[in-house]
Design brief:
The chain is mostly helical and about 180 residues long. It has helices at about 20-35, 40-45, 55-75, 90-95, 100-120, 145-165; strands at about 130-135, 140-145. Helix 1 runs antiparallel to helix 5 (about 100-120) and helix 3 (about 55-75) packs antiparallel against helix 6 (about 145-165).
Length: about 180
């Protein structure tokens, strides 16, 4: 079971799931704001070796939203599918996260949140309890309710990662 996150303050409250679509959109808008306001050099700079730049985090969050959307759709059409790992580090390299245009990423991130939110908004009440095998941090059967909340944690946590490197408002404690 995933525990609450002491680092970013996120609480895994499964009752948040029905509002995950709008909350994800809000987080995406905050990422887009960073991408559109900050200088390109600051967005591409890594604070330390092995720590992604704000631009790389934004690309990762965009892809998390798209991957989670596909996982949700898979769990709606298949009984307890296994969520294939997204290969986050390989994606960063293969897709050239560090070299992408911040304005494009801002738009794509907002679109990805909208696509993810659309799938959540269309879930019938009984489907929130459908499951998939989520392989991180260890394989475990998880509900779509959990998947929605976990995705919010990803967004909030990485927004904090970006805030550590760029000026701007940190994520609110009650987000």
């Amino acid at each position: 079971m995933t525990e609450d996150c002491a680092e970013c303050g996120f609480v895994y409250d499964l009752e948040l799931a029905p509002s995950a679509a709008s909350l994800a959109g809000g987080y995406a808008a905050r990422f887009a704001g960073f991408l559109l306001r900050a200088e390109r050099a600051a967005l591409a700079r890594r604070a330390a070796p092995g720590v992604w730049s704000p631009l790389e985090y934004a690309c990762h969050v965009r892809d998390v939203l798209l991957v989670q959307r596909e996982r949700l759709l898979s769990a709606r059409r298949t009984e307890t599918p296994v969520a294939t790992p997204m290969g986050r580090d390989e994606r960063a390299e293969h897709e050239g996260y560090a070299f992408q245009d911040p304005a494009d990423v801002a738009r794509q991130l907002t679109d990805a949140a909208s696509l993810f939110g659309n799938v959540l908004d269309r879930l019938p009440p009984a489907h929130w309890e459908r499951t998939l095998v989520y392989t991180y941090p260890e394989p475990a059967e998880r509900s779509l309710r959990w998947l929605a909340v976990h995705t919010l944690h990803e967004l909030r946590h990485h927004l904090l990662d970006v805030h550590r490197q760029l000026p701007g408002p940190p994520p609110a404690a009650d987000d």
